Amino acid sequence: MNIKWLIRMLQATAITVTMAAVCQELEKPKEERKWYGQVVGFIPYDFRLPTIERLKESYWNQYESRVFSPEVFGVGWAINFHALLEKIKLIKESDGSEEDFLMPGSHMKEVLTHALEAE
Q1: Contact predicate 46/72, CB 8 Å
Q2: In whole angstroms, how far apart are CA 91 and each of 64, 67, 111?
Q3: Please, which residues bridge with residue 43 across strands?
Q4: Mind listing the pLDDT tens digit of every residue in the chain (119 residues)?
Q5: Residue 111 CB partners (closer than 8 Å, separation 6+)
Q6: Quick count: other Cβ atoms within 10 Å of Cβ 98?
Q7: How far, CA to CA in Å, does 101 sit from each of 21, 78, 105, 112, 119?
Q8: What's 67's DSSP letter?
């Protein structure tokens, strides 16, 4: 299989889904447009300006167990790294905060070292 063909198909799909999301919003009356929601029934989109709160909610949400969360801006999903690290047993529920993840200090190094030694 030609890899260029696969890449072009993925690009065409991404463009089509993005256009569908924009058209979905433009079909609504102006006062009902939220610029976020789902297209094709399950693909999330959000065209609002990102905020720090939404970035944390998507990429480091300690209160959500799903690894994939809606993207902060655009179409598709983001990776909730807190849930991912919990699932692969590198951190426990009580270990690590978003500050530890973004600016790893001695506590996070300790957590990761302990997780690797446990294997």
Answers
A1: yes
A2: 14, 14, 7
A3: 39
A4: 689 999 999 999 999 999 999 999 999 999 999 999 999 999 999 999 999 999 999 999 989 999 999 999 999 999 999 999 999 888 776 555 666 556 666 666 677 676 666 65
A5: 90, 91, 95, 96, 100
A6: 15
A7: 32, 16, 9, 11, 21
A8: S
